[in-house]
Amino acid sequence: MSRKRRIEIPGFHHINNISIDNKKILKSHEDKDRFIEILQEVSNRYNLIIHSYCITKDSYHLLIQNFTTNLSLAMRQLNSMYSMYYNKKYSRSGTLWQDRYKSWYISNIKYLHTIYRYIESTPVFEELSYNIGEYKYSSSYRIFNNNILDCSKNSFILNRFTKKELAQYLEKPFGEDELKIIDEFRKEKFILKKEKVIKEKTESLYTIFRDSKSKKDRNKRILLAFNKGYKQSEISLYLNLSSSSISKIIQKGGNS
């Protein structure tokens, strides 16, 4: 069975990759420093902005923004260049990475900010530091120590926060509510249609509306169908309601 096509159109993406057998392939400071050098080279070559990153002993997280459909090329280059460095240094051969890197297209501002906090919280999750911003191989550490990577200098974080404001924003521990947002984010599925990202419809209109017993309930289901990715015109045709009626119901949050 063919692999599902990645969503790599211009936008924000959360990238995660893990070493094979959780081997410590980023174990020394020299290794991590070289990975960062390669990350900068690749970002410059493929015109990427790295809004957030965290590099641990066996994995990395990136919050990337791309401007052309080149994400797979860039990640392949990053993984390949680091593998070449590591295999030469430690006299080994073969793959370093567990599988294809994982990527999630970020569809809205809520997910964007939650993913940022999630990545910057990784050193705390993995007991590499007590507080966010203390771990040397995270982007917040560089911000707080005035040593921002070139590939991060146009990050939305720097435009939105001063260092003091960012420290306040990050000092609150990553909570259960945010973990639920991450879980929700990872469950979202998208399809690429005519180079546009569209949320995948997992339920048919028949399934959504089949048990509707009142106008009030129907209206709530109209909003539900719309939020699941159905166009207003599709809902209008299915229910034999005018497009203007569907639009008003959606605008009123399904309470019309």
Write the layout of secondary structure elements.
Blueprint: E1 11-18, H1 29-46, E2 49-55, E3 59-66, H2 71-89, E4 102-105, H3 109-125, H4 139-144, H5 156-160, H6 163-171, H7 176-187, E5 190-193, E6 196-199, H8 205-209, H9 215-227, H10 232-239, H11 243-251
Antiparallel strand pairs: 1-3, 1-4, 2-3, 5-6
Helix pairs in contact: 1-2, 3-7, 10-11
Q: Could you characterize the architecture of this molecule?
A:
This protein is of the alpha+beta class and 256 residues long. It has 2 domains: 183 residues, 2-Layer Sandwich (Alpha-Beta Plaits), CATH 3.30.70.1290; 51 residues. Helix content is 47%, strand content 14%. The protein has 11 helices and 6 strands. The strands form 2 sheets. A 4-stranded antiparallel sheet has the order 2-3-1-4, sandwiched between helices. A two-stranded antiparallel sheet has the order 5-6. A hairpin with a 2-residue loop joins strand 5 and strand 6. The longest helix has 19 residues. The radius of gyration is 22 Å and the shape is elongated.
Number of DSSP helices?
A: 11
Going by helix content, strand content and strand pairing, the class is alpha+beta
Order of helices and strands: EHEEHEHHHHHEEHHHH
Uncertain runs are none
Question: For this structure, what is the CATH class of the largest domain?
Answer: Alpha Beta
Let me know the CATH homologous superfamily of the largest domain: Transposase IS200-like
Q: Roughly how many Å is the radius of gyration? A: 22 Å
CATH architecture of the largest domain, please? 2-Layer Sandwich
